[in-house]
Design brief:
Oligomer: single chain
Mean pLDDT: 76
Number of strands: 6
Low-confidence stretches: 491-496
Shape: globular
Structural class: mainly alpha
Helix content: 55-70%
Radius of gyration: 30 Å
Largest sheet: 3 strands, antiparallel
Strand order of the largest sheet: 1-3-2
Order of helices and strands: HHHEHHEEHHHHHHHHHHHHEHHEE
Number of helices: 19
């Protein structure tokens, strides 16, 4: 820790600005209530504006002078600005702005939550000390390359387990761990899970920073494409082979495994049945909702890594690369003119607007001359279907396959009846698809509507048999779909 770094941190860090804000308590309460308490990590700007307006109206009933300077839209713009950086705004898949917390705001809310909840929460000093010592010892064993040392450790573990088995077999009594220790271990594990969700902000920010560095090099005119390609591949290696990338990929492999998910949900059900944890129902319910939340976080991080691929494609496209180079020159000239007039700015107010409807692909490129289009006029006649054509159209309509929604949902309920998670591929391997491809799309719609897990960034190939077709089967490339039991999902009424 160095003094100049601390000075810069206290002068510019967004988290410090939030703590120093005169409305810090009201802002932190709003962000915690709608991002943390609801376990919703991503809001559209329209949704968040609506809940902020409702919050301000309720607040002004008792605190009429608090947060009255601006409209809700202006407050969100201010909190997303480069100066505050308490929220991050980005363009979502549906061309609507999405808003989420930044790493600094996650840190502030985590600190406040920890400090306020520590007055009543279990402080697991004994549990944490024991776990820390066990982890240190485990690190030494895992790092060892000596076969004899590894064998000695495994032998000692084996003898310990065998002694415990013999004692239980001889006495017929199992002495459980005391309730206090169970609650300590649970509190420690739950704290780790809450921190995990906030850690995604830092991972995503790190990945975005690497992508921005590559974008910056592409826009520089003094960089040759070979050097930029080296930078792209180095950045890709940093994402995939760096410490954060390796641990993140391992996390995704665990998250997308239906076997691991079933094991996780089974463990949560067992925790709920323990009397020692009867006072922790809110925390247990939050843990049950963790898989969908973390899945959404992982998908957003993966979309960030995909930007490198897009940058590489643009770089290899000669025409696009030349256009970007020319655009960089124009922007640089604009910046120089702005710097030239900065010492003597115009007295009158300067205004500008963006013409969104204007569609100019490349104004500095000229196409070769082409002859004008020749319009050939033809005599128009009124089209009229014959009786036979109408009958044929009705016959085709009658032959159209229909989706039996009841059957599809019954199949899902049947395979998840044992409180297990099952993939779409497993269901289709066991059940026939009477309606063909349209029935598979029906399964996908049910998964989106009823809150099952749809991994759009993780694809799998599914073979189905078609009735009345020249080809016996067809292979579909689908997003990986995991159907989960009704007790463990949230209905979200989505669309495909």
């Amino acid at each position: 820790m160095e003094l100049f770094k601390l000075e810069a941190f206290f002068n510019a860090a967004p988290c410090i600005r939030l703590f120093r804000s005169p409305n810090a308590a009201y802002i932190a309460f709003f962000l915690y209530k709608h991002f943390k308490a609801t376990h919703k990590t991503l809001w559209t700007q329209t949704e968040l504006t609506a809940v902020l307006r409702e919050y301000l109206e309720e607040l002004h009933e008792t605190q009429p002078d608090v947060l009255r300077e601006e409209k809700p839209e202006k407050y969100l713009d201010d909190w997303c600005s480069g100066e505050k950086r308490w929220l991050r705004r980005s363009l979502g898949r549906d061309a609507e702005y999405e808003i989420q917390l930044t790493p600094d705001t996650e840190a502030v809310l985590g600190f406040i939550d920890q400090r306020l909840s520590s007055e009543h929460a279990t402080i697991g000093t004994g549990s944490r000390l024991r776990q820390a010592i066990e982890m240190f010892a485990e690190i030494v064993i895992k790092a060892s390359t000596e076969p004899d040392e590894k064998i000695r450790h495994l032998t000692a573990e084996k003898e310990k387990i065998e002694r415990e088995i013999e004692k239980i077999q001889s006495e017929g009594i199992v002495v459980p761990v005391r309730d206090e220790f169970l609650r300590e271990d649970f509190a420690t594990a739950f704290t780790m899970l809450k921190q995990l969700q906030g850690d995604f902000r830092a991972v995503e920010e790190r990945f975005k920073e690497i992508a921005r560095q590559v974008q910056h090099k592409i826009s520089e005119r003094n960089e040759v494409r070979g050097e930029i390609l080296d930078s792209v591949f180095e950045a890709d290696d940093a994402l995939k082979k760096g410490e954060q990338g390796i641990t993140f990929n391992e996390f995704c492999r665990f998250l997308y495994s239906d076997e691991q998910q079933n094991k996780f949900y089974t463990t949560v059900d067992s925790l709920k049945s323990l009397d020692a944890l009867s006072s922790c129902l809110d925390e247990l319910n939050h843990i049950s909702e963790l898989i969908p939340l973390l899945t959404g976080e992982a998908e957003r991080v993966q979309r960030t890594t995909q930007r490198l691929g897009s940058s590489l494609r643009r770089l290899l496209d000669t025409k696009t690369y030349e256009q970007r180079q020319r655009l960089g020159i124009v922007l640089d000239e604009i910046r120089k003119f702005a710097e030239k007039f900065s010492s003597a700015p115009p007295i009158d107010k300067i205004e500008f607007y963006v013409e969104e409807e204007l569609d100019i692909a490349a104004p500095y490129r000229y196409d070769f001359w082409t002859a004008p289009l020749h319009l050939e006029l033809k005599e128009l006649t009124e089209a009229a279907d014959t009786e036979e054509e109408r009958k044929e159209a009705f016959r085709k309509l009658a032959q159209t396959e229909k989706i039996d929604w009841t059957k599809l949902k019954d199949n899902i309920e049947k395979y998840t009846a044992n409180n297990t998670t099952v993939s779409l591929k497993t269901i289709l391997d066991q059940e026939s698809t009477a309606a063909g491809v349209i029935e598979v799309i029906g399964y996908l719609q049910i998964a989106e509507d009823d809150g099952h897990h749809v991994y759009h960034d993780d694809e799998e190939k599914i073979n189905i048999t078609l009735r009345g077709s020249s080809s016996p089967s067809v292979t579909l490339t689908m997003p990986k779909i995991l159907f989960i039991p009704a007790t463990k999902r949230k209905r979200k009424h989505g669309h495909i």
